[in-house]
Structure formats: C-alpha cells, structure tokens
Amino acid sequence: MIASYFEICLVCGIILLPILYETSQKFRYFFKFFVCYVGVIINSLILIPAMCFRPRDVRNLVLASSFCRHISPLISIKWELRGTDILSRDEAYVIVANHQSSLDVLGMFDFWHIMNKCTVIAKKELLYTGPFGIGAWLGGLVFIDRKNAEKAHAAMNDCTDMLKEKRVKLWVFPEGTRRNTNEIHPFKKGAFHVAVRAQLPIMPVVYSSYSTFLDDKAKILNNGHVIVTTLEPIETKGLTSDDIPALMDRVRNKMIETFRATSKEVESRYSVNGNNSISTSKLRLRCLDDLIRPKLSSAANGSPTRQVRTERKEKE
Asked: Residues of 79-113 as b/e, b for ≥16 C-beta within 10 angstroms?
C-alpha cells in the first residue's frame, strides 16, 4: 500500500512538473536554481575523492569545471566568451569581474579550462556549505572574512607569492555583493591593493547584463545569452597605494563601457526594430526562444502578408 501511494505521487509529480515549468514563471525560476545548486553539490560529492590526491591545488577547479559546465545547457543559458587569447595567457593576473548573480559561477565553469590556473576570492561562509565548501577548499579557493577587514586583507596578501610563483590568476568580484540592477556598482579596494602590492596586472572581465532573462524580484529566469568579454590587462608596475583610487576609476570606466555595449548587443539580437520593437521591461518577461520565432524575423524584414495588409489600408 505504501509503495502504491509512493508510485501515485511519483507519477503525479512527473505529470505536473512539465506543466508547472511551462505555465509558472516562479516555478521555473526556483526549479532552474534548484537544478543549478543540486548539480554543483552532486559534482562536488563525486569529485571530492579525486581532489584529495592533490589538496589545495587550483588545477582541481579545472577538473570540477569539466563536469559543472554541463549545468548551463540544462537551464538554457549560453555563454559567449570574447578575448579567449587574453584569458588563456599563462601569467599571474588579478581578474576583476562584475557580479550580478550566483549564475556568474556557471559562466566561470564554462571557460575555466581556458583560464587553466585560477583561484577565487570567496566569502568564508561558503566554506561551511557541505560538499560544495569541501570541494572549494580542496580546489584552493581563498576564503576571507568580510566582517573582519584586517583578516580579509591579510588572507588576500598571503596568496600573492603563490600567484607569482605558480602563475595563477586570482578572480575577484570587487563589487562585493551580487546585485542584478543592470549596472556596475562602485568597487571595493581589496583586489586593487593586492594587484599594486604584488605589481600584478589587472585583467577586467565583463558579463553583459542579465536583464534580458533574469529578474530576481519578479522571480523570473528564462533562457539566456551572456557575452563575457576579457579586456586587455592594465599594468600596475610603479603604482603605489596612493594611485589606487585613480586605478579603480580607470578599470571601472572601461568595464562600464564594455558592459553597456555588450548588453545593448544582446538586447538587439533578440528584439525587433520598427513597430514591432519590444521594450526592455517586456523583454525581461519573455523567453529568448520566443523572441527569435520565424514570424517575428519575417515581420522585421517585411513579409508578403504585412505588405498586403499595408496596401489594403492605403486603398481604404
């Protein structure tokens, strides 16, 4: 009897799942994030034994990414990387990237094999997230206590010798907290202090806006396309702590310029010009798949049906 109830519930769940997925935006939002987080945890559980053979080695993150990069297709997000030749350079850099969502990590998984040797500055709380925290520690992530500025700076500075010696890239989200507000917020100084003290170049990486497919307030997560652009590194040789504010402004301005250009490009790819144009606010509520239907593209190019209707109106 218990088995039969379980089977009934299982069948009902299987039937309801695709219906809820197609009809409820909120369900789709939570379901996709669920798939994302569960996928990362499962991969961590599988890979922890292999990572134990070389603990705290950043090459473990390349291994992890080879599995985790398959999560993005499951939730229909495509990452288009530009500047591959820059990102693949076998040198030590401090990478600074804008931070919009936890989905940023999926983008990193997609091109981690290109970065090869790269570690990340992460908040200490992630260390206590079960299998993911263990896997992150084995992968050589640098954990900092954001509530204690002195300890955070010390942890970041301690890793500089390793960066130079092993030619490892250090990935930092200088905005601190992730915020999907369609802009790049002011930076914190930590990453720039590390770069200047170690005299390492700063490599900006820019994710285009998620506003075309993600709205956390409305609980919407549709199919998405993100352009990730790697910019030429900015040298810090000869700079001192007094030069950090100007350096931060220079890097942030370059990133804002790229962010606006690539975001506009993504929006224009999936919108129609003229009378059929779709506003950004409406675009957020639509799947990108719906915006590239043949009927829309034909309407934009001037289909025969549209011409006939126009001629009838002119005659009338």
From this structure: bebebeebbebeebbbbbbbbbbebbbbbbbbbbe
| CA 278 distance to own-chain centroid | 25
Tokens in use for 81? 């990387």
Q: Sign of the C-alpha dihedral, residues 238, 241, 243, 247?
A: positive
How far CA 30 is from CA of 34, 76, 222, in Å, comes to 6, 14, 11
Task: Report the relative pairing of strands 224-230 and 77-82 from DSSP bridges.
Answer: parallel
How many CB atoms lie under 10 A from the CB of residue 252?
Answer: 20
Burial code of 13-26, b = ≥16 C-beta within 10 A, e = fewer? eeeeeeeeeeeebe
Tens of pLDDT along 209-249? 999 999 999 999 999 999 999 999 999 999 999 999 999 99
289 backbone dihedrals φ, ψ, rounded to 5°: -60, -35
C-alpha distances in angstroms, 121 versus 152, 288, 308? 10, 32, 60
